[in-house]
Specification:
Number of helices: 9
Number of strands: 12
Strand order of the largest sheet: 2-1-5-4-3
Structural class: alpha+beta
Radius of gyration: 51 Å
CATH architecture of the largest domain: 2-Layer Sandwich
Distance between the termini: 70 Å
CATH superfamily of the largest domain: PAS domain
CATH class of the largest domain: Alpha Beta
Strand content: 15-25%
Length: about 450
Amino acid sequence: MLSSLRFRLPAIFLFGIVVSGVIAALIALRLFQGYVLTRSKAQLRREAIGLTEVFARQAIAANNTGKLPRIANQLEKATGDRLFYIGVDPVPGGNIGIDRIPSKTINWQSGRTITFEFTPPNGRRYLAVARPLKLSRKGPAFGDLIVATPKTELTRRWIPLLKRLAVASLGGILVAWLLAWYLSRRITRPVLALSKATDEISRGHYDVEVPSVPGRGEIGHLAQRFNEMAARLSEAERQERNFLMSVSHELRTPLTAIRGHVDALREGVASDPAVRAESLDMIASETARLERLVGDVLDLAKLEAHRFTLLQEEVDMGRLCERAYAAYGEEARRRGIAYVKHFTASPTILSDGDRLLQIISNLLSNAFRWTPDGGQVGLELSASNGRIAVAVDDNGPGVPVEERERIFRPFWSRDDSGTGLGLAIAHELAVALGGSIELDSQTGKGSRFQLVLPAERH
């Protein structure tokens, strides 16, 4: 539970909100403390100025010490602050009704208004402003009248703010928790679906689909790519099954023929020399067929593992295309196919001649396979703009747009017949030789496969 994404996401989100709230509250409290302290100092300064003038006038008017304690008490009640005095007696008798503090507390003889903090014998800490006390405007200062307020009074002013901050913080935490829970549900729902789908795929069940996620975020992109991956895996599994079935069929057919002819030769059924020669030719033909099939599988495995060795030799492309063209002349005659060639160049390049011949032969084999009897197949060779192009045209059924990428995948066949290796090997060999195979097709009208190579002349 605690390690699940559904718990950790809102927990982390809430933790971040709480930390941010605490930091914001501390900053606000600190700013409020500074504001209260500044305001309190300004207020004490104004009171000190006013009370000093009032107390000086009362002291002059009283002309004795009997009324000053009562006046001092009235001033304290009116302002709510404490009054202290430091210095010499301003009137005869010394009883002015104000508590005195030690003379060393501040430099009262400076003649300036002083803001300070002190702790009298009662133990409470005070914020105070000292104002010189003069009985005449130009006369000497007898001492300083001190207006002070306990620092605990300043702290009490923070309490309402702390209460408001606490209420706001609790409300913010509650809203943040609800928002985090809602967002975590939206985020983790597709993630959990992805996790379940991954478990299904690990068991070999590829027919799974993650529900689409609204929006264009990372989770939606991940769900889309996961569905594409699952579809590809499902298709790869189907292609593998088709490949195994087709390869089994392709292997069984020549093996059955070879076994039948071998049994006939062994049992003496084919005693006639002509029949024996025909059986041996059939065995050789089927053996070559098996060799080509095994060679295709090995070639594809080497290409995909990047363990394929290519030769570098001078290749006359004209003669190479003539060889490839001649190999299918008999099939074209037998099926009544209009088989034409059109060579406008005969370049010589550095490449692997056998592999180039294999590519062109595979393209021609594919064209003859899909061209109906009486159709048309063409082979073209051209060179221009620093590249060489060998094109194979047919007037077969064409390749639909949705299949133009898949036909170059191994083991994929449009009609689920054959091994589906010819075009895949041709494509991989073309890339290995530094070229590519381009496809231009119209459904119902035919296709044009073009091998494009760089014109590296010797």
